[in-house]
Amino acid sequence: MARLLISIVVIFVLSMVLGYVVHGVLLGDDYTRLQNLFRAPEDAHNYFAYMLLAHVVFAIAFVWIYLQGKAHKPFLMQGLRYGVAVAALVTVPMYLIYYAVQPMPGMTVLKQIAFDGISMIILGVVVAWLNRQPVSIPD
Predict the structure, then answer these.
(1) Could you tell me what percent of the chain has a pLDDT over 70?
(2) What is the pTM of this model?
(3) What are the extents of the domains in the chain?
């Protein structure tokens, strides 16, 4: 139970940090050019609790799903596989749907998919590392 809670907290914090790096730093200029599609910064602060809630729910689900499919194999390959699967299942479709309904430039969407895809892979490796099998030392 302790490992589960630690995994959830670590994934929550890391997803917040990666989200800031991707959307606040790497895509910040892209989003600034699209101010008509987003809340004004001063208004966005009023909704920050929803951002926190979304990352908490994400962290719980991300860790739980990983643990359901975890195998007794090296953590790195499992984490990479899991991160790619989540990116393919969630990240790519999500941004393509947003692109279909919101007038977002195609290059910005490609950057969102690439950067968030990389974030999912990093999160996958971290959750796999946190939940890796202890190394047994032969006698």
Answers:
(1) 96
(2) 0.89
(3) 2-130
